[in-house]
């Protein structure tokens, strides 16, 4: 592995040669490896375009390494050099080849008195192959050490991996994980990762992050007793226990028997306490129960085993891996056999696919049986020959005693399969043929769990078998594509007798934008307009641009077109302009049938464009109120993670039936969690109102002021389980959603709560069940956390070049469509209705209920000011004489010592904060029906909220709702008019709209200026305060003179029509 530092150029360097110039060269230091560029004589804006290569050891942690780039002036004729500046780039921001972009870095001082200015432009990336340097490099002053560590040869780079950009970008995170573990564990993990190289770049790299090696020494009693080891075990799980696809899929079948009264729970609960958050006490990290039914040294004994899953209840499973068979006996009729394997445990049977005419078949299929549902102490594996007519032929069997089955708990290596001789039905003799099997007892942490056949899902077949598995998804890497249409030249209309009215239409995928029509008819129009699109890696769409002529309001002629791939455009990280380019337009409609016009190819119109991919923005695909990721697109701009979020999805309770199956209600529930670019989907539990998933997932946290969203859905794609004509057959039904804001969580504390799944229906708010979660937020550095709280929420480009509100809404809608389309192509797909519900696609739609809720939220905020004014009024009215006297004393003290005003204010807020600490919330916030105005909402308002857009209601209903909206808007109009009236009265004080009022006011201002000039400020403040705090007997019930004067001032209301 090589680290490539391409030194491009520098700008505005400090002159150092005494003649107003400098002869700069660049020296790069990486891990005691020094290399420098050639010297550019007499140039303060040098251009090198030179690549410097360094050896990069992949086994070392790059989390704390940095690259130091220094610029020096070469002195002549006396040998020497002058320092011009330096910059340090952390290695955690280095990307792979193909993702590099041109970056500029401000030069820094080496000493306090150094005179430094300017900046340097670099491209930094890693490369697998060795690159040749364009110019010959001079030898550095001292050669690099001969004992420079070379990266060990691994097979990870040669193993075929799926080309997913955002997964490949996070492959260096395993180094962070190794740095967080003790040395003994690092050696163990390094050995394991060498044995499993192709697991290194799996999608779980998105979730790995640096946990500090030094854990806090606090003892948090029993629930958090395993905290110190838990964080390390989580990373062992991330590094070691990774299958070939995204992992951490830990679904548990629900084996509890069901009673009839839970199948049809009440549709709506009248108890408001039923909507509250409830504390739970799950047995997190529970080991297998002591004592077994069968005893002995097998998998049901009293031993205790370690686990990486400390936020879920551990569940035991019996795994059977059927690898292959050999030397099977042929049929006497066909002289061959069509073998398959049947695995039987009690009443549960699972079978592999069959092969036609194959004597040595290979299956490599895993079967999983829940311990809770095991009804036998013997496991039987049958090998049979499939027959077209009649019963299948028996070829042999293998029998296992469950007391002799070994136990495997990750990070143990997988159990090696063994060859077993087939025996007859009675077990008295051996038959021809052997089968390779591996049988072990494990938990949901086993990597074979996610792709295994499960005994509780035996009724699912076909495509439905893939749709019930748990998976981890990664959102596509989104870019903003900015197309700056500058001008066009030599635009020739189809009708040569007129000049064209030209505009440009640009299309990227399904996104179409156009410029304004040029105000004048010309063949050389000038627009200089920006059109912004959303694009996703890998770039599959092309930029299709057409220049069109507005002939009539209903007719546009295409004058030229061009199609450009997106990967040719420059990626920029900041606001610096990119280079513009001219593109020749193809004549629209020119084809093989128009041979007489081919000579027109010698002349073509052209268009001037400035196109770039914006890497400094965060592409919004979710509502800004519930945003889960705020990082920019370019990985070079990412900061270090500030924490780790661990979520254990335990299960759900009391789910309502979502569909009918065999004449009774049924629910096939699964849970989806979304945070940042990582989506997780649990396994589908079939026909269960109290499903148990017990799956644990981990995310890196880059900003604590973010939200994780979890949704529960009913799976309607089980391969024939539902009727095709059913209303919900094609879409997974929503059961409910939960949001947890990370900033409301205390660090290192495990939150175990049952969240109500509240959904708003046309009939009102309804509780669909409860979701049981275990959440833990771990902070990595207090300094980084304080640093994050003082910086903007979004990247700098959102403030340097902000988008308009309409642009943000349109781009977010396009980003949601792209994410939904890409995730829908996965296997199993994360369907469009699920993605849209998780991303709140309809959050911008009008709702009378939401408008009321927001209005009362504003009133609750203003109520504090109203309460303060009422309290001050009671003080002025002397309702409580003691309080009024104390306020007078405090006022006199502050007047006499004005320097105590601000300290007193801040000390008062400090004491209030300390007092409120006793009453701080002990659980995360959840969906509040009262705050949402969902309990007292009118049925017609709910019907309006669930109406389609455009409306599908009758004209009478639409007219009634329109009149109601006019009434609400009339009250808002009156309120805004009153506010405008008060503001215009202030303006009329000096505008001479009322000459007498303005004359009185300016005379008053002159007198006030003289009085305030000759009177000390303390006296003025004292007199003013005592006047407002005077006793009621000195007050009049009539309005004051200033109030009367202000209300008589004119406004512009008399000029309104």
UniProtKB/TrEMBL annotation:
List, alphabetically, the Gene3D superfamilies matched: C2 domain
Compositional bias (Pro residues) at which positions?
A: 137-152
Q: How does it sit in the membrane?
A: Multi-pass membrane protein
Q: Where in the cell is it found?
A: Membrane
Q: Can you tell me where the transmembrane regions are?
A: 773-790, 855-873, 885-917, 1000-1029
Q: Which InterPro entries match?
A: C2_dom, C2_domain_sf, C2B_MCTP_PRT_plant, C2C_MCTP_PRT_plant, C2D_MCTP_PRT_plant, MCTP_C, QUIRKY-like
Coiled-coil-forming residues are: none
Location (main, coarse): membrane
Q: Which SMART domains does its entry note? A: C2
Q: Where is the composition biased (Polar residues)?
A: 153-162
Where is the region Disordered? Answer: 127-162, 190-223, 253-273
Q: Which family does it belong to?
A: Belongs to the MCTP family.
Name this polypeptide is given: C2 domain-containing protein
Origin species: Dovyalis caffra
């Amino acid at each position: 592995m090589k680290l490539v530092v391409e030194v491009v150029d520098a700008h505005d360097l400090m002159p150092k040669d005494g003649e107003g110039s400098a002869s700069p060269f660049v020296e790069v230091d990486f891990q005691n490896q020094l290399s420098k560029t050639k010297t550019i004589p007499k140039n303060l804006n040098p251009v090198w375009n030179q690549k410097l290569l360094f050896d990069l050891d992949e086994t070392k942690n790059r989390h704390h390494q940095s690259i130091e780039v220094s610029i020096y002036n070469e002195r002549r004729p006396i040998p020497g050099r002058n320092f011009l500046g330096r910059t340090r780039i952390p290695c955690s921001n280095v990307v792979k080849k193909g993702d590099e972009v041109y970056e500029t870095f401000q030069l820094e001082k080496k000493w306090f008195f150094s005179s430094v200015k300017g900046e340097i432009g670099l491209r930094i990336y890693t490369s697998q192959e060795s690159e040749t340097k364009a110019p010959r490099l001079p030898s550095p002053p001292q050669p690099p050490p001969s004992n420079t560590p070379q990266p060990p040869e691994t097979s990870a780079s040669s193993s075929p991996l799926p080309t997913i950009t955002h997964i490949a970008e996070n492959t260096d995170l395993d180094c962070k994980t190794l740095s967080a573990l003790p040395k003994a564990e690092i050696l163990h993990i390094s050995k394991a990762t060498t044995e499993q190289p192709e697991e290194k770049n799996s999608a779980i790299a998105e979730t790995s992050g640096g946990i500090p090696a030094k854990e806090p020494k606090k003892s948090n009693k029993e629930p958090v007793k395993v905290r110190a080891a838990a964080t390390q075990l989580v990373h062992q799980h991330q590094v070691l226990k990774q299958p070939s696809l995204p992992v951490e899929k830990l679904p548990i079948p629900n084996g509890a028997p069901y009673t009839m009264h839970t199948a049809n729970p009440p549709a709506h609960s009248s108890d408001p306490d039923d909507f509250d958050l409830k504390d739970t006490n799950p047995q997190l990290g529970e080991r297998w129960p002591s004592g077994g039914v069968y005893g002995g040294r097998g998998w049901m004994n009293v031993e205790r085993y370690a686990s990486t899953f400390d936020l879920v209840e551990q569940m035991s499973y019996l795994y059977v891996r059927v690898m292959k068979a050999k030397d099977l006996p042929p049929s006497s009729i066909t002289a061959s056999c069509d073998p398959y394997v049947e695995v039987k445990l009690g009443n549960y049977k699972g079978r592999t696919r069959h092969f036609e005419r194959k004597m040595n078949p290979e299956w490599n299929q895993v079967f999983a049986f829940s311990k809770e549902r095991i009804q036998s102490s013997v496991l039987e594996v049958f090998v049979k020959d499939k027959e077209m007519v009649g019963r299948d032929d028996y070829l042999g069997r293998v029998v296992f005693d469950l007391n002799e089955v070994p136990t495997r708990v990750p990070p143990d290596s997988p159990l090696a399969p063994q060859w077993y001789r087939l025996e007859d039905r009675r077990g008295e003799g051996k038959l021809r043929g052997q089968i390779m099997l591996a049988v072990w007892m494990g938990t949901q942490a086993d990597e074979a769990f996610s792709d295994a056949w499960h005994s509780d899902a035996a009724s699912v077949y076909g495509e439905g078998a893939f749709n019930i598995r748990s998976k981890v998804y990664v959102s596509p890497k989104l870019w903003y594509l900015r197309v700056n249409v500058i001008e066009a030249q030599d635009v020739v209309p189809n009708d040569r007798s007129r000049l064209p009215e030209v505009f440009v239409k640009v299309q990227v995928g399904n996104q179409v934008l156009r410029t304004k029509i040029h105000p004048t008819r010309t063949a050389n129009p000038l627009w200089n307009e920006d059109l912004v699109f959303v694009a996703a890696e890998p770039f599959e769409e092309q930029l299709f641009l057409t220049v069109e002529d507005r002939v009539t309001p209903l007719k546009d002629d295409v004058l030229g077109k061009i199609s450009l791939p997106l990967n040719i455009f420059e990626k920029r990280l900041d606001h610096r302009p990119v280079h513009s380019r001219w593109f020749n337009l193809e004549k629209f409609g020119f084809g093989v049938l128009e041979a007489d016009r081919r000579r027109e190819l010698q002349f073509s119109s052209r268009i001037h464009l400035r196109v770039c991919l914006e890497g400094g923005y965060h592409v919004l695909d979710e509502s800004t109120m519930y945003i889960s990721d705020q990082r920019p697109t370019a990985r070079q701009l990412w900061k270090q993670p500030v924490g780790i979020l661990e979520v254990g999805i335990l299960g759900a309770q009391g789910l309502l039936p979502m569909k009918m199956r065999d004449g009774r209600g049924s629910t096939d529930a699964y849970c989806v969690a979304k945070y940042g670019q990582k989506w997780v989907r649990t396994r589908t539990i079939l026909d269960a109102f109290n499903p148990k998933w017990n799956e644990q997932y981990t995310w890196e946290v880059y900003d604590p002021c973010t939200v994780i969203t979890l949704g529960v859905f009913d799976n309607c794609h089980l391969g024939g389980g539902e009727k095709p004509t059913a209303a919900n057959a094609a879409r997974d039904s929503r059961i409910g959603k939960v949001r947890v804001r990370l900033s409301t969580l205390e660090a290192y504390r495990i939150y175990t709560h049952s969240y109500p799944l509240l959904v708003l229906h046309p009939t009102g708010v309804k509780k669909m069940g409860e979701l049981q979660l275990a959440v833990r937020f771990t902070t990595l550095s207090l300094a980084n956390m304080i640093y994050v709280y003082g910086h903007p929420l979004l990247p700098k480009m959102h403030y340097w070049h902000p988008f308009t509100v309409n642009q943000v809404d349109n781009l977010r809608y396009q980003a949601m469509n792209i994410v939904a389309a890409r995730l829908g192509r996965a296997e199993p797909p994360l369907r469009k209705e699920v993605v849209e519900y998780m991303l709140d696609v309809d959050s911008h739609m009008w709702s009378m209920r939401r408008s009321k809720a927001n209005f009362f939220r504003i009133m609750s905020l203003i109520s504090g000011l109203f309460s303060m004014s009422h309290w001050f009024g009671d003080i002025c009215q002397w309702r409580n004489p003691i309080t009024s006297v104390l306020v007078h004393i405090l006022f006199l003290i502050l007047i006499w010592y004005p320097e105590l005003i601000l300290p007193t204010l801040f000390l008062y807020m400090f004491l209030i904060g300390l007092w409120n600490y006793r009453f701080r919330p002990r659980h995360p916030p959840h969906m509040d029906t009262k705050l949402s105005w969902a309990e007292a909402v009118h049925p017609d308002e709910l019907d309006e909220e669930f109406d389609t857009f455009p409306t599908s209601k009758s004209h009478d209903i639409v007219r009634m709702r329109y009149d109601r909206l006019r009434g609400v808007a009339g009250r808002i109009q009156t309120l805004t008019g009153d506010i405008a009236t008060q503001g215009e009265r202030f303006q009329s004080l000096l505008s001479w709209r009322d000459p007498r009022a303005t004359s009185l006011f300016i005379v008053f201002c002159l007198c006030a200026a003289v009085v305030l000039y000759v009177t000390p400020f303390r006296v003025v403040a004292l007199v003013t305060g005592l006047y407002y705090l005077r006793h009621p007997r000195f007050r009049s019930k009539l309005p004051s003179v200033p109030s009367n004067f202000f209300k008589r001032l004119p406004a512009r209301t008399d000029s309104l029509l």
